[in-house]
Amino acid sequence: MPTTHHPLGIDIGGSGIKGAPVNLAKGRFAKDRLRYENPKLSTPDAVVDIVVQIAEHFADDTGDSPVGVTLPAVVTNGVVRTAANIDPAWIGTDARSLLSDKLGRPVTVVNDADAAGLGELQFGAAHNAGGLVLVSTLGTGIGSALFYKGVLIPNSELGHLEIDGHDAEQRAASSVKEDKNLSWQEWADRLQRYYSHVEDLLWPDLIVVGGGVSRKSDKFLPLLHLRAPIVAAQLQNSAGIIGAAWLACNSTSPASHPRA
Fold first, then answer.
1. CA torsion 222→217→234→71, rounded to 10°?
2. Residue 196 belongs to a domain with what CATH number?
3. Domain endpoint, select from 59, 85, 111
4. Among 214, 219, 260, which Cα is nearest to 240's?
5. In the prediction, which pLDDT does 256 show?
6. In terms of pTM, does the model score above 0.85?
7. Confidence band of 247 (pLDDT split at 50, 70, 90)
8. Looking at the domain assignment, is residue 207 inside a domain?
9. Domain tally for the chain?
10. Are residues 135 and 228 in the same domain?
């Protein structure tokens, strides 16, 4: 029987680069993911070299299928506009062209939280959700993905709202909990302040919380008191890879991605 080729999803994060082929019929990895630590200087060329290694590792599984790549940055039309948790050399880089040239395959580049949100929308906790949905990722920073009636509103960057004189993610990201050794209650108090502010601005119908810490959602979500239901992401740290792979196969426009 001929080999079934799957799209490749690659998640470039603040600390590591990970990728896997994705079975979009099932919404899960077709093979175990491969992860590398970020290079000491995570410039575009250095990071792309690792992306190429991941693509080569999964060549038999992906063939010439499209590739979806996430970045912790605002991305418009494949061009990186910010660099909150990656090397500033990325700013202004046409990442889509750079990666397409190196991989010799179609590449879609998307903000990491938007990719995670798409994964949850298609296969996870936000599947079939109507109205306004906020998918919030808690990790090195705070990412956000907004959807209205299943359509992505890209690059929302709600983790950079100013709250009490601070950039929100500098007060309430899960990395801050670890760095400051906050108790679950102390961290939840910061999250409460953040999500209450977001609620007052947007009035979402559902909030989905992702990132690695979502595995321990029972420790902090019950401590939050919000108008909207707030639930843990189902795909956890797989969401970005899965969402990026789905987007690579399902959209030609980086600005608007309807639910399949």
1. 120
2. 3.30.420.40
3. 111
4. 214
5. 36
6. yes
7. very high
8. yes
9. 2
10. yes
Q: What gap in Å lies between CA 117 and CA 124, rounded to an integer?
A: 9
Is 247 within a domain? Answer: no
Q: Tell me, yes or no, whether 54 and 144 share the same domain.
A: no
- Give the chain as a 3 state SS string: CCCCCCCEEEEECCCEEEEEEEECCCCEECCCCEEEECCCCCCHHHHHHHHHHHHHHCHHHHCCCCEEEEECCCEECCEECCCCCCCHHHCCCEHHHHHHHHHCCCEEEEEHHHHHHHHHHHHCCCCCCCCEEEEEEECCCEEEEEEECCEEECCCCHHHCEECCEECHHHHCHHHHHHCCCCHHHHHHHHHHHHHHHHHHHCCCEEEEECHHHHHHHHCHHHCCCCCCEEECCCHHHHHHHHHHHHHHHCCCCCCCCCC
Average pLDDT over residues 76-90: 92
Chosen domain end from 111, 138, 154: 111
The pLDDT of residue 1 is above 60? no
**Pair 101, 213 in one domain:** no
Same domain, 152 and 104: no
Would you say 42 and 84 are in contact if contact means Cβ atoms under 8 Å apart? no
Confidence of residue 15 (pLDDT cuts 50, 70, 90): confident
pLDDT band of residue 2 (cuts 50, 70, 90) is very low
User: Which tokens sit at 96?
Assistant: 């889509």
Q: How far apart are CA 12 and CA 21, in angstroms?
A: 15
Domain that residue 40 falls in: 8-111
Q: What is the pLDDT of residue 175?
A: 94
Residues 229, 127, single domain; the answer is: yes
